[in-house]
Amino acid sequence: MGRWMRRCGLMAIALGVVGMHAVQAQTEGEATGFAKVATPTLVILNAKVWTGVPGAEDAEAIAITGETISAVGTTEQIHALAGKATAIIDAAGRRVIPGITDSHTHFIEMGLQLGRINLRPAENREAFINLVAATAARLSPGQWMLGGQYSVDSWDDPSPPDKSWIDTVTPGTPVFVNRMDGHQALANSVALKYARIDRDGPPDPPGGEIVRDPVTNEPTGILKDEAMSLVSKHIPPPDERKMYDALMLACQVANAWGITAVHDMTDLNQIPAYVMAGRRDTLTVRVRSYLQTEEFQKELSTLRKAQSEAGGLYEVAGFKSYMDGSLGSRTAYMHEPFADANADTRYPRGFKLAHAAADSYPADIRWANEQGLQMAVHAIGDQANHDLLDIYASIPNVKERRHRIEHAQHLMRSDIPRFAELGVIASMQPFHKADDGRWAEHALGPERSETTYAFNSLLRAGAVVCFGSDTPVVTMNPFSGIAAAVTAKTLAEEVWVPSQRISREDALRCYTYNPHVAAFREQKLGTLEVGKIADIAILDSDILTAPIDDIHRTEAFATILGGRVVWRAESAATE
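-> structure tokens emitted (575 positions)
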């Protein structure tokens, strides 16, 4: 991510069409083989255009008129359409693809995280403590230390962190740092005092766990799922301006990787920042929001108000809800106990979160469906996925509604064909497989591993699979995601569950066309065809032919949103 940071100063350039030039052109329609085409406002020439249309050969050039693709063909044909005012991008043989969609983000949170502590690079306890100490030294007394993104599972000693690690280096600083999956957090003693968590209580909230020393009952500082809110509710939320600034920064990050759309899991207090950006026309990605709440009926008015205020590139689609926790925190809800559970494990199968365990939950989802809303529900464990599919199956018109399962991470083999049968979208994050694959089999065992991150099995069964990142849990880089899906390599460079590998083209469709199917926009976006909106990424390397181990280094040479250049790489700005 460091490379795009060095280029943020280019954003003013990126919003124009610097480096392009206009040429004298032939009269409209003189290009052989084309019907009369309006003079384009922008053309891309000398490219290798992957249109995303199955079976179609590469094209060489694209003409854009306004926000719409008006012609696709050879460089000679498209060049002949240009007029005096037509801007020209010479792609110089670069790969051109439809704009990329990240189908699962916490977008504003990603922008905020860039200004918070990042514990992901820590490779051992000492490094973890040193990062916390260095950050605490920069904070004002009493200022909360937030962020984190830690993961200890791949360490030589994967023992979970403990408040004792950091108490001595944060005596006046409340600390609340998340595990990378967001389903576990470490709080120091200062932060625990805000929530009055000590050896005498409180009890575990439904759907959560306060991890305690088995002998003394002293809290270790680790809080899981619903227990995290005992502390987090005491943290002052960022104001609207800070969230707006984080959103603008997140847009720059996305555009630098050719991302033109995101499906965002939006906190209710983030809505004003999106509305502000929509009114100011400052968004440079299309944002489709799913509002995170477990109180659908109570928050329907909030959702309707957000829908009425939304506009431009911002839209509100439905609610985001949670069935369970995560594999790394062992709070995913499994059909059988975790392979590494023992007699002391309090929840050997993980658990459903409190609202999902309530008898009213299926009726709540059916009610949201009746309101015309699209549900996006987090399900990690195989039992959580099974139960959610059962709920969706109880909806009479389910296939036309395209409800989603976020993550769909660990599946029973018998549930894989149900996604296509029910028209349920599998919204998945392939880089999680590269990350978790270093240790996941210890938690799952070999048999369950075969149907985890089941990209290939789901696609072959006819399901609509769309890919995303879950940023800021992991990098937003879609090319790291493509590499993970294609190679099945973990971050330890070991191949894990190779049977679920897919082709580069299939992976690209999961990032381009399929997300627009999930968003009911496939008639307008997702492929590079005449009449569709011109959301386009010009890449700095050819991900269809480059060595597979180099794919993750890919970035955007230029990113085009609705016919407007919103990102140009440094090397492109002087061409």
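Residues 2-98+530-572 form a domain with the Urease, subunit C; domain 1 fold (CATH 2.30.40.10).
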